[in-house]
Design goal:
alpha+beta, single chain, 2 domains, 7 helices, SH3 type barrels, elongated
Length: 249
Amino acid sequence: MPSTVGGLIIFVTLLVPGFVFQRRWSRDRPVAEETALHEVLTILFAGLMLDVAALVVLGGAWWALPGRAIDPGRLILDPAVYVAAHPVRVAGWAVVLLVIATAGGGVAAARRVQAAVRRSTRRSASDEPYASAWWQLFEEHVSVPIHVGCFLTDGGYLGGRLHSYSRVGKESGDRELTLRDDITYRSSGDTSSAQLLRNVGAVSVSARNIQFLTVTYLASANSGDDVAAATSSRSVGVSTPTDPAEAGR
């Protein structure tokens, strides 16, 4: 741990933005086993980049407010003397730097921002390291609602709007996904269409009970379209349903 005030300021402004970025970034990524060294290096590198970006922003503020600016040369050459002479100014700008860098880390790691980066670099969800089949299907179009149809191992069918799913990168039967909104179900051996389950708002299904599933990317609510934008499936030969609720027919 740092033993001086200047060292403490540097320690906090370097680690906190990187930690926020890493935690927010990992929430929307396939879960993988990372070593402590890998995680620490990610935090340090991200924190350094975010601090540099925040310093660029502060440089503009110091140029606009020269009377309240920090003298970087004196701060770097003799930090103890400069901090002792201007404690309030240094502490105030350090807080501003920390806020800008931390907020920038949270925004940069946001799911939609990362999706925009993938589109701009022409990368797909399948390019993500440790990506499972679920990740590739559910993260390809993060801005649109997703309807999931689960064909169960016992011959039944369960469908609904995707609510959440396990982001564990390892394919295993212990994973679960949850569906919400209008839940449709057809029992094994039933030849009729899947029926809406009354008074059921959400349901959980284990991967070990799913034979294969279909994924329908629905048009966004403000587009005015009722048809699916695209359909993907983990099984060959499954047609795109006009009405997702009829996928189990």
